[in-house]
Design brief:
This protein is an alpha+beta fold. The protein contains seven helices and eight strands; from the N terminus they run ββααβββαβαααββα. Helix 1 packs across helix 2 and helix 5 crosses helix 6. It is extended and about 65 Å long.
Amino acid sequence: MPYYIMEEMPDINKTGKRILYPRLAMIQQVSTEELARQISHSSSFSPGDIEGIIRQTAVELAHMMADGHSVKLEGIGTFTPSLALRTGKEREEADENKPHHNAQSIVVGNVNFRVDTSLVRHINRRCHLERAPWKHARSPQKNTPQERLAMVLKYLNEHPFLTVYEYQKLTGMMHTSAANELKEWAHTPGSGIDIAGRGVHRVYIRKKETEECDPALKK
């Protein structure tokens, strides 16, 4: 069941109003390997064959866009390369008397993706949303890293361990950002946070007092 959260919009106009908007709570990212297994269940192709096709599709997309083409995948969307200046290069002025950039100064800076409307319709037909059981996420401007660290330590004072999923519920962060921040704190001396377990069983615990006082004791 997909969850949505109501996230607070930053008050950029300083009106004092707290406005909420819905955002899908992306708890976990699906890998190429997992997608290939899922496709295999509903087809006659092996997961290995499907994964190979997906990876080769990425290679061919790169080749076609490198030749200046946009690529449309029916039912998915259209990929179009966009250009940018190399790092350190200044923007070109419109004055014809000013020096112009040569091709070596310009690179593909990004790839724009425009989703096929049929894919959006298909998602909506299958998507049955439920409001997340946790509170709406605060605006990132209202939660500094130090405040989030305090939230973690308070949680670990009341619970034996913390998962990335629970940390997402506390902060409203995306999965990757939440996992990276917890991992960084666990490797930061004096943070008070440690790691237990491995892989999907990894959790975060309160570091022992001796290790908090002297990180060199942890080997």
